[in-house]
Amino acid sequence: MKTVLVMLFVAMMALSAAAANGEKNFGGVGIDGVAAPDGQITVRQLVAGGPAHVAGIKVGDVITHIDGKPTRGSDFRQMVHKRLRGRAGTPVVLKVRREGVEKPLTFTMQRQQLVVTTPKEK
């Protein structure tokens, strides 16, 4: 089941990336995440140089809040489309739990237009 969710997320990201590459106002933070059963998002990958990467988010961080709203119990797809993504240049605040760090960490960043490319076949 996890494999299906991961494949679905990758497909959603690819479709969204295609739309993002052609839409000037689209913005994101550059996180590829995996939904936990409770709705929280574990960061799996970061877009190098993207807002989340520059802000200091790390692979393995668990996103617990987006703009002050908890991710626990939320719909993963809606969080990605309505809360993480938005108009380029608009702010977003993420609260994360990081292994080995006692208190939650808060990161404020600006969404930016991300151009996602796929590796070329050899």
Automatic annotation (TrEMBL):
Q: What is the recorded name of this protein?
A: PDZ domain-containing protein
The organism named in the record is Oryzomonas sagensis
Q: Which UniProt keywords apply?
A: Signal
Signal peptide region: 1-19
Q: Which residues form the PDZ domain?
A: 12-80
Q: Which Gene3D superfamilies match?
A: 2.30.42.10
Under the heading SMART domains, the entry gives: PDZ
